[in-house]
Amino acid sequence: MLKEFIISIQSYFKAHELIKTHKLWKWIIIPGIIYAILFGTSMYFFSKSANEVIQWLNVETGLQKWLTTLEDSWIGFLFTIGGVIIWIILMLLYFSLFKYIWLILGAPVFSYLTQRTISILDNTPMVSEPKLYINLVVDGIKMAARNTLWQTVYVFSIIFISLLPLIGWATPLLAGLVECYFYGFSMLNYSYEKFNRSTVNSSTFMNQHRGLAIGNGMVFYIMHCVVLVGWIFAPAYAVIAATITMHEVKKVRQ
């Protein structure tokens, strides 16, 4: 798994070289700017709503009033940490929902970048069959919708675990790994479907090679730490890096 994780990270550097060499910037920057605007706007409102949810829980459950009557500062500290953890998980949930909306809306661009990258790596003409391209877009949308459902189930389960004292402190890390896995899964699936395999086989492959998916998704999230610039480049770099990763895996398996 560690080796696969490293392969996915290295693929981002190879993606950068491929983009520079073949001048794919317009397919990176224009969709990336749209993504950055939508991401920044949505996360601002998501953050406000997360604060309101936590405040509502404190008031409705009587927790806030109860904490003010306690003299033990450690209990108050523990609940404060718990509130922060719940806020982080809610933000991850919001980010997850936004991310999959973007995966669905951006499916045509991601499909094109996948096809273009494969043609460059194989040194073959890019396939121009509309039916094949449409099928790739539809497969991408279906996989994004499927992963949205499963990841939402997992994240809500993690939210319940986060309510447990001390044990719940580890849930942000768990939620982050789940996020990375499912996003990387969606990116890798674009090039995996090149083999015309079923969704079941695709899922089985990803479960057997979690390092590839987690590595791809983790770099995607790390890029978001670079405000605006990282937001612009993260989506397209992720799909190109995923295609390079799968291309290398395919060569090994042949």
Question: What features would you describe in this structure?
Answer:
There is one protein chain. The protein has 254 residues and is an all-alpha fold. The chain has one domain (2-40, 100-253). Helices cover 85% and strands 0% of the residues. The protein contains ten helices and no strands. The chain has helices at residues 2-21, 25-60, 63-68, 73-105, 107-122, 130-162, 171-192, 199-208, 210-223, 229-253. Helix 1 crosses helix 10 and helix 9 (210-223) packs antiparallel against helix 10. The longest helix has 36 residues, at 25-60. The mean pLDDT is 77.
The largest pleated sheet is described as: none
Oligomer: single chain
Write down the Rg: 20 Å
Helix content: over 70%
Mean pLDDT: 77
The tally of structural domains comes to 1
Question: What is the number of E strands?
Answer: 0
The number of helical segments is 10
Termini distance? 20 Å
Shape: elongated
Strand content: under 5%
N to C succession of SSEs? HHHHHHHHHH
- Structural class category: mainly alpha
**pLDDT < 50 runs, ≥5 residues:** none
Record keyword descriptors for this entry:
254 residues; 0% strand; 85% helix
Give a summary of the structure in a few sentences.
This protein has 254 residues and is an all-alpha fold.
Walk me through the topology.
Elements lengths: L1 H20 L3 H36 L2 H6 L4 H33 L1 H16 L7 H33 L8 H22 L6 H10 L1 H14 L5 H25 L1
Helix pairs in contact: 1-9, 1-10, 2-4, 2-10, 4-6, 4-7, 5-6, 5-10, 6-7, 7-9, 7-10, 9-10
